[in-house]
Amino acid sequence: MNKQTLEHIQQISTELRLSAFRKDLDQVITTAIKEETSFEEVLLNLLLAEQQIRLINRRKAQLRNAGFPQLKYIQDLVKTELPADAMTQLPLLETLDFIDAGQNVILGGSPETGKTHIAIGLGIKACQQGKSVLFTSIPKMLTQIRECHSSRTLRALELKFEKYDLVICDELGYISFDKPGAEMLFNHISLRTGIKSTIITSNKSFDKWHEIFGMDTVLTAALLDRLTHKSFLVNMNGKSYRMKETKSMMGSKNINNEIEVAAHI
Predict the structure, then answer these.
(1) CA angle at residue 98 from 118 to 184, to 5 degrees?
(2) Cα separation of 85 and 172, whole Å?
(3) Where are the domains of the chain?
(4) Least confident segment among 12-26, 209-223, 235-249
(5) Residue 132: which residues within 8 A CB-CB, separation 6 or more?
(6) pLDDT (tens digit, 9 = 90+) per residue, 48-70?
(7) DSSP for the chain?
(8) Which of 3, 179, 238, 253 qualifies as a cystine partner to 83, CB 3.0-4.6 A?
(9) Which residues pair with 168 in a beta bridge?
(10) Cβ atoms 207, 174 nearer than 8 A
């Protein structure tokens, strides 16, 4: 291939934003000449390289756009320190089959037992598999709903909310709602029922959810019915997972300190 033709290809690939194509062009052509590779194979190798880099960039963008407060991976969990029900159900949840089936996951129970870590870990894994994910806290979501309702842009928010493969709603139960707020939240979450997956974390057991929704037992029962139908209900009651982690870290530090002291004796 002459120099002018090569420069022309580089120019066009730049204009078309084919970064991997442009980057690998010289190497692929050089290898093709040595190995007498066919024109079709050269083209295929360049396109595969471009496809791979675009896939990687898309995954990075999905992870960034999900809005995770921290990157907490499933593999970082000390699974033996989780509540018993979580240890039992987590292997099945890790397959992410619940997302394809449009099923919900409710992680409910004691504070600081690993609920948010599990939710984020599943969300990150979903992003890595090319699924669209949104992470939000319940208070933040309700504020957004109210703002959009006031500015008459609620339908646009709803359409966007419906399309995510997975939505993670964190911290249900940290604050209670007045009746209008509870109804707005109920209607919004119901948009995804039976169609798309939602993960909800809550520090309250189901029998106390009426405290969250302004003592409206009818609304609470309706929301529970919609959320729990064909859902994974994970009992997260147990000792603080964070406290166990802290004690483990402190134990390691104490051991290291003892070793250091012993070394100087």
Answers:
(1) 80
(2) 20
(3) 3-63, 74-244
(4) 235-249
(5) 62, 163, 164, 165, 166
(6) 888 888 888 889 999 999 999 99
(7) --HHHHHHHHHHHHHTT-HHHHHHHHHHHHHHHHHT--HHHHHHHHHHHHHHHHHHHHHHHHHHHTT-SS---GGGS-GGGS-HHHHHHHHHHTTTHHHHTT--EEEESSTTSSHHHHHHHHHHHHHHTT--EEEEEHHHHHHHHHHHHHTT-HHHHHHHHHH-SEEEEEEETSS---HHHHHHHHHHHHTTTTTSEEEEEESS-GGGHHHHTTT-HHHHHHHHHHHHTT-EEEE--SS-HHHHHHHHHHHHHHHHHHHHHHHT-
(8) 238
(9) 135, 199
(10) no
Q: Scanning the structure block, which residue is given the tokens 């949840």?
A: 93
Structure tokens at 77: 């969990």
Question: Mean pLDDT across the chain, nearest whole number?
Answer: 84
Overall residue count recorded for the chain in this entry = 265
Q: Note the CATH number of domain 74-244.
A: 3.40.50.300
Please state the pTM of the whole predicted model. Answer: 0.78
Structure tokens at 197: 């997956």
pLDDT in tens, 114-136: 999 999 999 999 999 999 999 99
* Angstrom distance (rounded) from CA 243 to CA 135: 24
